[in-house]
Design goal:
Number of helices: 10
Strand order of the largest sheet: 6-7-8-3-9-10-12-11
Number of strands: 12
Shape: globular
Radius of gyration: 20 Å
Mean pLDDT: 90
Largest sheet: 8 strands, mixed
Strand content: 15-25%
Bound molecules: adenosine-5'-triphosphate
Structural class: alpha/beta
CATH topology of the largest domain: Rossmann fold
Amino acid sequence: MTLLEFRDVHVTYTGSRGRIPAVRGVDLKVEAGTTVGIAGESGCGKSTLAMAVLRLLPKSAEVRGEILLDGEDLLRMGWGRLRAVRWTGASIVFQGAMHSLNAVQRIGRQVAEPMLVHDKDLSPAAAAKRAEGLLERVGLPPSRTRSYPHELSGGQRQRVMIAMALACDPDLIIADEATTALDVMVQAQVLQLISGLVSERGVGMVMISHDLSVLSAVCDTAAVMYAGRIVEQGPAHEVFAQARHPYSAALGAAFPVIGDPAARLRPGGLAGDPPDPARLPEGCSFRPRCAVSVERCGEESPELLRIEGARSSACFVAQEGEPVVIG
Ligand SMILES: Nc1ncnc2c1ncn2[C@@H]1O[C@H](COP(=O)(O)OP(=O)(O)OP(=O)(O)O)[C@@H](O)[C@H]1O
C-alpha cells in the first residue's frame, strides 16, 4: 500500500538571490512497511523535500505538484486537517530539531504533550508512562524524564526529539539526518528501533542522509538527489553496490566501507561542488563534474527513466547501457 507519494513536486524559493529552484520535479513513492532513503550532498534539496511534506517550509517557498499521504493531498489540505495529520499521520525529526525543545519544560512532559493533544481519552499519567517508555527505547533512562533540555547533551536532546516523533504512533516518519549527531553506538540503537517499527508495525519511513553507510544499512529503496532532482532510484543495496548514475557512483566511491556505520566520508571522493540552483548549467546538471559525459549531456537534461527491473537513472550514458563507474 502506497503511504506517501510525491507527484511532480517542485519547490522554488524567492529571495534576494532571485528565484531558487530547490526541488525540480520529484516523483517518489513510499510503501507502508518500507524505508526509502534519500541521499545526496548538501544543498541538493533533500531537506526542502522533507519539509514540504508537512508544509513546514518558509513563506518564501512556493510548492507545486501533489504530496499524497494515504491518498490525501497534503498541499491542499485545510490547516485544521493538517494539524491533525502532523504527529499522528506523519512526523518528522530533523537535525537541529533539538533546538525546538521548550527550555522551561521537563522533557517527559514535552514527549507526552503531542499524545495528550491528539488523544483526548489519554490520561496525563498514562501519557507520562508512555513517554518514559519511549525515552527508554531511545536509550535515555527513566530518571531523565524530569530533566530540562539544558541538562542534556546535544545527542540526548536529539533522542528526545526522536521519541517525540514516535509519540503518536505515526504511519509515516521522516528522519532528516536525525541520527547524524549521535555517537555510533546510540545511532545503531536508534536505527534498530526505527527498523523495528517499519518491519513490525508497517510504518513508512523516509530517511534522509548524506551517510550512505546508514542508508544502505536500513533502506529498502534508495533515491539519489542532485540539484533538486532524483537522478537514480532503485533497491538500496543495488544502487549503492552498483550505481547506474555517475553521481551515485562517485558518492559510493567516497564511502570505502558501505554497511559499516563507523565508516566516514573519504575526502576527495568527488571533486568540485554541486551547482548553484539559481545558475544551473545547460543540459545535465551533473555534467561539469562528470567523468563519463558525452556531447548530448551538454544539450539536453536527461529524464529519470527505468533502465532495468526497478532501477531508474537520469543519465544518457546509463540509459545506453554503458558503465558509469569511474576510476
Ligand atoms: N529558506 C530558504 N530560502 C532560500 N533558499 C533556500 C532556503 N532553504 C534552502 N534553500 C536553498 O535550497 C537548496 C536546497 O537546500 P536543502 O536544505 O533542501 O538541501 P539539502 O540537500 O537538504 O542540504 P543539507 O543537507 O545541507 O540540508 C539550497 O541551494 C539552499 O541554499
